[in-house]
Queue: 4 jobs
Job 1
Amino acid sequence: MPELPEMETYKTLLNQKIDGHPITSILINREKSINVKPDDFINRVQNQEIKAIERRAKHLLFHLENGYVLLLHLMLGGLMFYGKEEEKPDRTVQIQLSFGDQHLYFIGLRLGYLHLLSQEEVEQELTDLGPEPLDVNFSLDTFLSLIEDRRGRIKTTLVNQEFLSGIGNCYSDEIAWHSQLLPDRKMNELNDNQKVQLYQSIRFVLQQATQYGGYMSMALFKGDTKTGSYNKKMYVYDREGEECQRCGAAIIKEELSSRKTFYCKECQT
């Protein structure tokens, strides 16, 4: 599932491609991927200019000139591609937004969605999200106050969107490895130094992953060399059996709270 770095990469690249451009036509192949009738969706969205693209947690918000917002959550297996018809990957497209002869394809939206909402409805939809971990105001003191009464495991706490926004299965493992803590450690068992290290690892891993375009396997557009570059820099995620970059021991894969979890049992404590 795309997480904060992947959606931040999409936001940055799409702002360069479609910000300020009108949506000239719309194709809806899966009605369950939207929240209103197709005719209503098309009437309110077609010919509207994209005024800005914003990210919140794992969501993208496409702000339209009429005040409506397209709220995107790709969920598991969802991705996007931008380009001409002949460049489109051989994948089933659920929704297509066209900008002249260039198209934004929404692919793999079996669980994901593109909802048309008012500004007020968007705020209501996202009201339970926790702080953004890369926000300039997300300080160490803020983090320490957030975890003061937390008793859950590191991994399950980090993926809780009401605790922090945007961290999922992949980066919770990367963060735990970087902080040299086992993902099943209880938050209330951490000493002061470990709490500080966890905060620093959250910021470092997410910043690094965003810098390298996250881990998406498919480029956003032809010639896109940024999207997915973090794949080569993964510490533990999807690296079962490979050598730990820090100590050389084999990376282990287990399930933790029904989530696949990757870690090194030798140098994570």
Job 2
Amino acid sequence: MGLLIFLAGASVFSFLNVIVYRVPRHMSFIKGFSACPSCGHRLGAADLVPVFGYLFLKGRCRYCGQKIGIRDTLTELLGGGAALLCASWFPEPAAAFTAFGFFSVLVVTALLDADTMEIPDGCWSALAALAVVSYFTMDGEPLVSRLIGMACISVPMFLMALLIDGAFGGGDIKLTAAAGLFLGWKLMLVSGAVAILLGGGYGIYLLLTGKKGRKEHFAFGPFLCMGMAVGLLWGQQLIDWYLGFL
């Protein structure tokens, strides 16, 4: 059963790779066939088996011999792991499916923002839709907490964007609003704090290594997504630890 859950999660994230590749290129991710980006040859069913296809092909295209990027396979592994985590973490199937959908949207958002420095409206819209679903499928935050969660991070980010040119993008702000509706204000505060710590550390690294200047931007969406994942899984534990530490 664990293997089946892993393969199902890897297959879903394999499809997410298609979305991440095609959306920036204005291609339909529903129609059409997968092809090698190097030679354009249509890929067969054996080439598209998540994770194992990469291993069988030894990381190279069957038709032209070009190396296949490892990121897609790592994403598929992440999908299998996320499916197993959700199945074991959330006892109710409806909650597990909702949480897996949440992680799926976060992965697409993070990869798209890392590639393009933009978060499409479809990402935060999907997250907002999942937030509505989660109200019925997941025990947790009441409606008032969710509504406050929409504003507790997104409004300060919006004000900072007005005061400081380029502080945050519109996609980041809308994403935090949708995530707040899903997580509620307490877990959203934890998510924001984790994102700032991770993103700030990465920014310091870029400055120290000379890879970015003070006025240059980097994608903050991946760090927001990591913070939201941590908030969903360990947010309450972090709150309890922090309050106990105080």
Job 3
Amino acid sequence: MRLTPTMTGLSTPAPLAFAFTAKTSAHASRGGAAPLMLDDAGWRAWWQRPSQAQERALYIHVPFCRKRCSFCNFFENGANPARMSRYMAALCDDLQRAAESPFGQSRPFSAVYVGGGTPTDMAAGDLSRLASAIRRFPLTVDAELTLEGRLNGFDDEKWQTALAGGFNRFSFGVQSFNTAVRQQAARFDDRETLLARLRALTRHDEAVIVADLIFGLPGQDEAVWRQDIADVMASGVHGVDLYQLISMAGTNLERAQEKGRLGWAADGQQRTAMYAYGAHTLEQGGWQRLSCSHWRRTDAEQSRYNQMAKRGAEILPFGAGAGGNIHGHGLMYGRDLAAWHEALAAGQRAPGMVMRPNPDARLDGLLRGGLDSGWLALGRLPPPLRAHLLPLFERWQQHGLAERIGETLALTLAGRFWNVNLQAGLFEYLQSNPLGGEAATPAAHPGGARHHSRG
């Protein structure tokens, strides 16, 4: 049995701060799926077959932003109004064709996520057209329809258009309320403007409002973070995500750091303290933790799409740069807008990568979904797999990252902070110690449904 520190974490008196060296990714997966050569005839045949999935969602990608934030490496296209409207027209036509297909109609969808980019930068007319295209799909009565974006530019006309179109959940990237921190991160609006807008949108509880916060931003010291938590709790939002800033290549933040212009930024230990403070304060204030990074103030917030994505639900992707899965096959569309437009105009599949099905997809979704929530139900694991994983789980318990509560493996505060590392370690463990066979060779894979990662 091979166990490494990247699987188990380190033995340390302070696991929250030192169990792992760093968090280097926002997601983890097993990998190992091989590419599939699929021609247009095969692609069209897929849309004639009914789905066999138990749960389904739509992911719709809008890859435009008016401004590039300092920490973001997902910036793809400037939000030129004419360019966006052309894209939205083609996207809605693609959605309509998919919705009318036997595959699209075969089973209902319980969640829709419109991500980016900054989808709220689209014009109100395009937003109305998008909502109409979404409603052509068979949606469950209580379907969660999320529109992602920023508060700046999301005026009352867009708000009312979205509500009328059926959107019932909005996820806004606040990142920090502090005006100076926001300016350094190249964000719009000051603290007072943000709080006023959030209070206006949440005043009548017409829809669920979620705010994202990032800890570890330049200039965001402990006092600023404490005020950020106080502000989000007082803002009226129904849910909040706490994401750690992850240094990524190609960002303006990285370039500023290389030139020595970054200024003060929290180190690893300070970030762990920020996470702990945020988690404790929210929970002491009556907020319920739904995952290792998400809390809700009321039961109206379900965070359904995010949980489905972790569990491995069938997620149909649309738009340049979107990712998901169809009939168990991973799918990631290319980001090139010209190639995307050209393919759709010709009635062809948009350029991208198709992967063969992962034979362990159901179990991987169970493991990933459980760890993401912080609670892994051991009784749901097949007995051979459960026995196989126990040495790893026991090491996590020894290292202060998890504890056994009956038939549940519960992550500690430290385990929740290092949750993505634990997921990656678990898949590394299964790769190095396969059940009854040789270790598989990792291969490229497109991952799950893509949306703007804020952490």
Job 4
Amino acid sequence: MCEVHHVNPWWAGGTTCLINSAMLCAFHHHLVHRLGLLAAVTAAGVCWDLTPDRMPTRDAA
């Protein structure tokens, strides 16, 4: 089973569409969020930046 990861988070203006999506199993989806990894969708597929803590976070209100 796969889960859809929003490459650009919906709360940051990302849409739910194929060009903003990466399919991940539940384990890797949670890992991406826990480590704060970034992805980019390119013509060749999804490219991952494995540098921790690069994913944008919501501003604390």
